[in-house]
Amino acid sequence: MFERYYRELLNFLARKVRDRETAADLAQESFARVYAAERNGVEVRDPRALLYQTARNLVTDDHRRSETRSEPGPHDAVVEPDEQAGPEAQEPEAALASRQRFEAIAAVIDTLPPRCREAFLCVKFDGLSHAETAARMGIATKTVEMQVQIALEACWAALEDFDGTAGVPHPSRARKRRPTK
Asked: I want to staple 30 with a disulfide (CB 3.0 to 4.6 A). Which of 54, 86, 96, 114 is the partner?
């Protein structure tokens, strides 16, 4: 029985406890208990099933014992509290700040001139290219580019005001200067 089921049971336990040494100890204990049951006259019709049930019970017992100990067992991973926290975006403060930033941007978009707002929404929200937006609006592609740029500048300014970083240059907004001749 040992030769037939040991490796299979060991792999099963290693997946459960995530520590090969602990898994080996639990596998050995499982076999010892099944052999003891046979020696005591218990009829074992399916030794594999009994081994697995015994192993599952031992994993549960080991887990309970390790929870009551103040120090982690060999198969318990030490987890820092920050690793157990959910995504930062789901924290109440972050969610509120995100909502407020969204509302600030929405207010800015609402105050844009109609053609500027239309171009911006087509490009940024509808996913149209500048050329597609120009064709839809009946204006030049260069005009769409300019209108989208104006809207983006207004949005960035609103975010800087909201974040309290007004006046601090933002690297993604740095204008590229053309070399003078």
From this structure: 54
